[in-house]
Amino acid sequence: MQTDLTIKETIPAELVLEDFQPEFAIHFERLNKAWLNKYFVVEPIDEYVLTHPEEAILNEGGAILFARYGKDIIGTVGLKNLGNRMMELTKMAVDDRFQGLGAGKFLCRNAIEKARNMKAEKLILYSQTKLETALAIYRKHGFVYIPLEPGKYKRADVMMELVL
After folding, report:
1. What does CATH list as the number for 4-163?
2. What is d(CA 34, CA 31) in angstroms, rounded to the nearest whole number?
3. DSSP-derived 3-state class of residue 107
4. Where in the chain are the domains?
5. Which tens digits make up the pLDDT trace of 99-133?
6. How far apart are CA 102 and CA 59, in angstroms?
């Protein structure tokens, strides 16, 4: 017979969505700098957004969401308000140690729903062709490729949109 502790240990933790809280700012920076440094470099715009998320995203009518798995914050995504009912899905990141749990899909789906609830009519995003997993998640959620608007990020070679 199994004890309650053994049974609980065999049940996987569920992903839980969390809204931005000041104590989560460190995770927004940590998670994003990890993938940026792994594949690219942290550009000046990244440094500003990641170290000043309230000024860069939240105070402008945006949102930052987090995926919690058990006690760990394992992923994040931002929604930057661009005005005219348009938002940028930005800074989506999942901790390498927790990839494969569906956190990227979870964050993307919840960001889309949050944007709808915030009355956005369109979501755009910038990405890079080497980020194949992220691009697959975006396509699965209905994002389509559009011509790249150059200049926002040096690393971006892809732009996508989703009409809500």
Report:
1. 3.40.630.30
2. 5
3. helix
4. 4-163
5. 999 999 999 999 999 999 999 999 999 999 999 99
6. 29
